[in-house]
Write a structure and sequence with these properties.
Structural class: alpha+beta
CATH superfamily of the largest domain: PPM-type phosphatase domain
Strand order of the largest sheet: 1-10-9-6-7
CATH architecture of the largest domain: 4-Layer Sandwich
Number of domains: 2
Number of helices: 11
Strand content: 5-15%
Oligomer: single chain
CATH class of the largest domain: Alpha Beta
Shape: rod-shaped
CATH topology of the largest domain: Phosphatase 2c, domain 1
Length: about 450
């Protein structure tokens, strides 16, 4: 029967709005009752009846003034955001449930129809009306107490009438009938309590849903900001290197991703191009990529030994990353003077090299373990590649090769090689578009599951 307290500003605000609506309904009912009583006063010639009607009118005015004051209190609490004191609801409950009882006492003591008429008078209907309005309190306990006090009030009138007046001979004025009325009033309170509980639960569920939506919107907004920041870390353009055409592209699977590519000019006139793939995708890997990028940018501008710099980056990431995170990383240092590329991979593959002379695609193996797994294992010297006209070095993440179709078949490196061979005469940017279109067509509507990054 008792409902647990809900410590929520949103629920408190909803409860106060509901209480305000209930009081307005009560005032509307009292105004209608005052009009009816006024009409009755105008249409009766009995002095006793007129005196009775005036007493009823006074009772209505007193309750209306009281409800207006409660309405002011509720309004102030709505503006301040404070919860009304608990004792106020108790006083309010007693005052409102006393009104029908006092009305029946007035009928029993001042009506021309006699005391027993009070026990079957239309005024009894005020009890269920007030009980119905009590459901807007959103408190099953208060609804039940309203029914209980209303029942007690009616029984008090019954006891008063039976103890002070002899029952008439009419069979309609029988005790079982009055007990039936009392039981009906009590059941009305019990039913209202159940209804209030359901209303309360629906209000709470609606608030939780609204709060969840609000949180999701905030998360979505934060992710959009993170995506904007992360995309801002990617190069706006690729470097211009004599004798080379270079293009890069990135498309995360979520708002944020775990892939990135970057390039830097080195002091010896070379250009270092890097690509990394953090395990997983989403906001966590996005933060890891930012750290990896920062370490790489700090290491390569004045590089003397690519292997030694890779050792330093790995040692830092081993300290930073949790045990379930690692990064595959590759750097390609382009020397336009010699048309050579120094390539060194920390666990990253595929590393595809297309040779224009024979039209073949070779997949180089990684040169060391991924970053973040273990420190102290040197990466050694880089692999040196002599580039000829038409040759291509293709660095891509496994989002391309592992894209599956509806039959759970991966796209694979062989299909990548076929695309490269067919697109050999296109520019690097056009080849990347061709690769992306090919894997999407292969997926046959299967959504992108992993981040995609490519540098050619």
């Amino acid at each position: 029967m008792a409902s647990p307290p809900i410590h929520s500003e949103a629920f408190q605000s909803a409860a106060l709005r509901s209480e305000r609506f209930r009081i307005l309904g009560m005032l509307g009912f009292l105004i209608a009752a005052a009009i009816i009583v006024g009409l009755r006063h105008l249409t009766t010639d009995s002095a006793v009846e007129q005196s009775f009607v005036l007493k009823v009118a006074g009772l209505i005015v007193l309750l209306a003034v009281y409800e207006a004051q409660i309405l002011r209190v509720v309004g102030r609490n709505q503006l301040s955001g404070l919860e009304p004191p608990v004792w106020l609801w108790g006083v309010n409950l007693i005052v409102e449930t006393s009104f029908p009882t006092l009305l029946l006492f007035l009928i029993a003591t001042g009506s021309d129809n006699g005391p027993y008429s009070a026990l079957v008078a239309p005024g009894i209907l005020l009890y269920p009306i007030f009980i119905i309005l009590s459901t807007l309190k959103l408190s099953p306990r208060l609804c039940f107490l309203t029914g209980l006090l209303s029942t007690g009030g009616y029984l008090l009138v019954v006891v008063f009438v039976f103890s002070t007046t002899e029952a008439p001979e009419f069979g309609v004025y029988s005790l079982p009938l009055y007990m039936t009325y009392a039981a009906t009033i009590f059941l009305s309170g019990a039913v209202a309590s159940g209804v209030a509980g359901q209303i309360r639960s629906h209000v709470v569920a609606a608030m939780k849903e609204a709060e969840t939506r609000e949180k999701m919107e905030r998360i979505k907004q934060d992710l959009n900001i993170a995506r904007t920041i992360q995309q801002g870390l990617l190069p706006e353009s690729m470097p211009t290197v004599d004798g080379f055409q270079i293009a890069g592209w990135n498309k995360p699977a979520d708002e944020t991703g775990g892939d990135y590519y970057d390039w830097q000019a080195i002091s010896n006139g070379c250009v270092a191009i890097s690509l990394a793939d953090v395990s997983g995708h989403g906001i966590g890997p996005a933060l890891v990529t930012a750290a990896c990028r920062a370490y790489a940018r700090a290491a390569f501008p004045t590089v003397s030994s690519i292997g030694e710099e890779m050792d330093k980056i790995n040692a830092l990431l081993v300290e930073d990353l949790p045990s379930d995170r690692f990064i595959t990383f590759v750097v390609a240092v382009i020397d336009p003077a010699t048309s050579q590329i120094q390539l060194l991979s920390a666990g990253h593959s595929p590393l595809l090299f297309f040779t224009a002379a024979d039209g073949k695609v070779e997949n180089f193996a990684a040169h060391g373990i991924p970053f973040g797994l273990m420190a102290g294992i040197p990466y050694g010297d880089p692999q040196v590649i002599d580039m000829a006209k038409g040759d291509m070095l293709v660095l891509i993440t496994d989002g391309f090769t592992e894209w599956m179709n509806s039959d759970d078949e991966e796209y694979g490196e062989d299909r990548i090689s076929e695309v490269l061979q067919d697109a050999r005469d296109l520019t690097p940017a056009e080849i990347i578009v061709r690769l992306y279109d090919a894997v999407r067509e292969f997926g046959s509507g299967v959504e992108q599951a992993d981040d995609l990054t490519a540098v050619i």
